[in-house]
Amino acid sequence: MQILLAILLGLFFGFVLQRVGAADPDKIIGMLRLTDLHLAKVILTGLGLSSSILFAGMMLGLIDPGHLSIKSMYWGVIIGGLLMGFGWMLSGFCPGTGVVAAGSGRGDALVFILGGLIGAGLFTLMYGNLADTWLFQSLVGGKTTLVFTGEAGALLQAPLSRVIAIGIGLVFVAIGKFLPDNIR
Q1: Is 182 helix (H, G, I), strand (E, B) or coil?
Q2: Which residues, 6 or more positions from 109, have their beta carbon under 8 angstroms from its beta carbon?
Q3: Domain limits at 53?
Q4: What does pTM read for this prediction?
């Protein structure tokens, strides 16, 4: 049953990505160049809304924070993020949008996915040699979150930290609402 739910949610998410233009590399590059902010508005609104709903659900006891998986912060994450951002900038695809674009028949997305699989394979082969290096030493206390979620340390320990997190999410929604679609 879980696999069926995952497939349905994946199809829905892919449909939404296609619908908002996230599978179009020209739109993504326009966003990264700060000339076409439509996708930035969608991303800010989605992040803000989902974060606000998540923390409100935690406050109301509807969401168990123990189900959240907080990843550790280390130099490898920063370097990997920079590499991914560079690849995103060059190709106009991130991993999710690349799969959606491939599903819509874009050949360049297939090349992007192949490159990502080759990169992941190379990392897997090199991991044993990299695991004990400075790349994997924890930063900022390792697993750190904005607010307390049960497992990780929190930057905000205040009793109202989840309210602050909801407020930040709503600020993201407001920015998404008031950003212009195009800057030319």
Answers
A1: strand
A2: 23, 93, 98, 99, 101, 102
A3: 11-178
A4: 0.78
